[in-house]
Amino acid sequence: MDTLTLPAPAKLNLFLHITGRRADGYHTLQTLFALLDHGDTLHFQRTSGPDIGISPVLPGVPNEQNLIYKAAVALQQATSCRLGADIRIEKRLPMGGGIGGGSSDAATTLLALNVLWNLNLSLDQLAELGLTLGADVPVFVRGCSAYAEGVGEIIFPAKIAENWYLVLKPDCEISTREIFSDPALTRDTPPIKLAASQTQYCKNDCEGIVRKQYGEVDKALEWLENFGKGRLTGTGSCVFLECESRDLAEKILKQSPFQGFIAKAVNESPAHRELREALKN
């Protein structure tokens, strides 16, 4: 196999609790990741040399800083692989939205190049490598909606309701570092039994800080109150609303003063599903 095309799905944090702060400054958390059937698409072409080419160059992100590039180089270095790749991105997910665009792109890169380069690394090995790129990368590597603890690296597969969601992207980008360094951030939410998290309301501990500092996010959440309980995902600027049907989500989106998209939660990553089908052929 010389070429491969795979999706890089978005995610929502259905809740995000900050339970503490470690001595190294990282925050401990509990969260529930819901993978979505909407995302970027990456096209991979194996090359005989070690160079990693990426096109197009994303605005404000030199290729050397792109997580796709970093994932490919990390995989080369971990395996002493001398092959390379040309990678073309169809970017649909907004940057800085808190829906995992960069992390998902990195995970899909690891999955694809592991096959194209005939490396035969296990998902455990790829997830461990992915963690060096970002705390959200392992959940995309493992390819299922999941609970997470620790700094996001302790993952438990979860069976979630495959609901429809309206996701809106206010016109701003949020600095995760800035949110986590805010002295007003709640850092002592009591840990919950994760099995209970789908049967009781769970909040995003970062939402209050984000709404205070980013007026556009506050406006979007206020607007969603006309239709139900909107929530912030992760520490990005995207907000979401659970909807009874796709039709309802489309009706709300047509009225929205904000850009957005509609997606369905899925228990298996589209990247894993399409990779399995590609390997059959």
UniProtKB/TrEMBL annotation:
Ranges where the GHMP kinase N-terminal domain occurs: 66-143
EC class: transferase
Keyword annotations from UniProtKB, A to Z: ATP-binding, Isoprene biosynthesis, Kinase, Nucleotide-binding, Transferase
Residues annotated to bind ATP: P94, M95, G96, G97, G98, I99, G100, G101, G102, S103, S104
EC number(s) given by UniProt: 2.7.1.148
UniProt gene name: ispE
Coiled coil: none
Official protein name in the record: 4-diphosphocytidyl-2-C-methyl-D-erythritol kinase
Origin superkingdom: Bacteria
Similarity field: Belongs to the GHMP kinase family. IspE subfamily.
Pathway terms, separated by semicolons: Isoprenoid biosynthesis; isopentenyl diphosphate biosynthesis via DXP pathway; isopentenyl diphosphate from 1-deoxy-D-xylulose 5-phosphate: step 3/6
Protein purpose: Catalyzes the phosphorylation of the position 2 hydroxy group of 4-diphosphocytidyl-2C-methyl-D-erythritol.
HAMAP family reported for this sequence: IspE
